[in-house]
């Protein structure tokens, strides 16, 4: 790649770059390129591309006055460099540059243009007035390595039924665990696509990966489960999320996608009279969608149950509400073990509040029972010991 000059640079963020890489590597197939004006208009009108379903046009329309000026001056055949954080990360040979209807674009992705919708607001901020199409080059190595890892695992296990779960694990709770186990029971291989958004978050990808890996390594057969990152870019944020998840999972090599009843967009396809498949609506996706009922903790059954099989009323049910659990964790409170596995809570809280109990641990190191050996009391272990005391029932 040549040395870019300011008048032939398009400035993007990592999210846009990753989306381009996904298409180039075939993860969004049948889409494998940026669409020109004619193609984009056709797809937005019909939701079909190359004879197959795709929910909206795949275009690159970067925001900013600097980008707009470059696009207004560019000619067919020009090479424009794709710059991210000041570094040249790719290039595109101009085929077509055309104006877009920003409102129609946002409506197509989210089903609304309401500025109160966070996805709508963010997309307007990053969406320009001109789209560019043409052959482009970007680094696809990260996505290619995920594809290769899945292919290798399938070949090694000789798996026939390969299921995918798209999971944020924020936080990983007992409902997630049951859903993962239930899916694995019906699969030869389970691929856990851990969502990797581009916004900074207290619950970073690295922290959520550590938690998910702990669960898999200690409580599941690791030879049948694979954790991989999934670049959760802006195109997956709208009401077409389920469709795009299905397309991506299929192109990564999976033939089943397991989703919960509350998965984004599932209301379009879930019928309480029974499990439905998205294939009933779009039969050219070539992947089966398995919809799971909601799990709750029932204080009569004294265990985690499905809302479709528990005979007790909803007033006996404790929902696995991620927002509620996050509120507890953010306040530094250990969630009840019926909601989150105590070891997982300990991992999360020890990283969210590092060195929180240094003085207490030093002062009361001998307060907790031990095996009679010298043991280092870490922050993580401190939470576990506290939880043990909470679960001592003889005096309560």
* CATH third-tier fold name of the largest domain: Rossmann fold
CATH classification class of the largest domain: Alpha Beta
The appropriate CATH architecture of the largest domain is 3-Layer(aba) Sandwich
- Structure annotation, total helices: 13
Q: How many beta-strand elements?
A: 17
* Overall outline: globular
CATH superfamily of the largest domain: HUPs
Task: Describe what this molecule looks like in 3D.
The structure is a single chain. It is built from 13 helices and 17 strands. The protein is an alpha/beta fold and 396 residues long. It has 3 domains: 6-138, Sulfate adenylyltransferase (Roll); 143-292, Rossmann fold; 297-390, no CATH class. A 5-stranded parallel β-sheet has the order 12-11-10-13-14, with helices on both faces. Strand 10, helix 7 and strand 11 form a beta-alpha-beta unit. Helix 4 (102-110) packs antiparallel against helix 5 (118-126), helix 8 (205-219) runs antiparallel to helix 11 (342-352) and helix 11 (342-352) packs across helix 13. The longest helix has 17 residues, at 141-157. The chain is globular, with a radius of gyration of 24 Å. The N and C termini lie far apart (70 Å). 36% of the residues are buried. The model is unreliable at 268-279 (pLDDT under 50).
């Amino acid at each position: 790649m040549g040395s870019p000059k300011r008048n032939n640079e398009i400035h993007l963020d990592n999210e846009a770059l990753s989306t381009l890489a996904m298409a180039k590597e075939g993860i969004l197939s049948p889409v494998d390129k940026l669409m020109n004006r004619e193609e984009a208009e056709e797809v937005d009108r019909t939701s079909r591309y190359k004879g197959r379903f795709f929910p909206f046009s795949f275009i690159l329309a970067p925001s900013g006055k600097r980008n707009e000026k470059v696009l207004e001056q560019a000619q067919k055949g020009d090479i424009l460099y794709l710059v991210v954080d000041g570094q040249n990360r790719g290039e595109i040979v101009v085929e077509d540059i055309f104006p877009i209807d920003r409102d129609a674009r946002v409506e197509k992705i989210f089903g609304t243009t309401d500025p109160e919708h966070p996805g709508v607001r963010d997309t307007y901020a990053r969406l320009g007035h001109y789209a560019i199409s043409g052959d482009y080059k970007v680094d696809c190595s990260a996505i290619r390595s995920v594809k290769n890892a899945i292919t290798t695992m399938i070949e090694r296990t000789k798996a026939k039924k390969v299921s995918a779960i798209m999971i944020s694990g924020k936080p990983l709770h007992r409902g997630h665990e049951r859903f993962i186990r239930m899916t694995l029971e019906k699969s030869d291989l389970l691929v856990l696509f851990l969502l990797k958004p581009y916004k900074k978050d207290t619950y970073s990808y690295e922290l959520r990966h550590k938690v998910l890996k702990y669960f898999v390594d200690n409580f599941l057969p690791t030879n049948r489960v694979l954790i991989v990152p999934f670049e959760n870019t802006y195109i997956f944020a709208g009401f077409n999320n389920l469709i795009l998840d299905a397309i991506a999972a299929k192109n990564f090599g999976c033939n089943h996608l397991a989703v919960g009843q509350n998965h984004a967009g599932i209301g379009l396809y879930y019928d309480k009279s029974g499990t439905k498949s998205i294939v009933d609506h779009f039969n050219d996706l070539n992947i089966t969608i398995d919809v799971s009922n909601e799990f709750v903790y029932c204080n009569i059954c004294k265990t985690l149950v499905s809302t479709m099989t528990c005979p007790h009323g909803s007033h006996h049910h404790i929902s696995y509400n991620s927002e509620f659990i996050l509120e507890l964790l953010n306040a530094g409170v250990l969630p009840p073990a019926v909601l989150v596995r105590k070891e997982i809570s300990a991992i999360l809280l020890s990283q969210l509040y590092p060195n929180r109990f240094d003085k207490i641990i030093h002062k009361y190191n001998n307060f907790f029972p031990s095996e009679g050996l010298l043991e280092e009391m870490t922050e993580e272990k401190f939470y576990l010991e506290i939880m043990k005391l909470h679960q001592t029932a003889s005096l309560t």
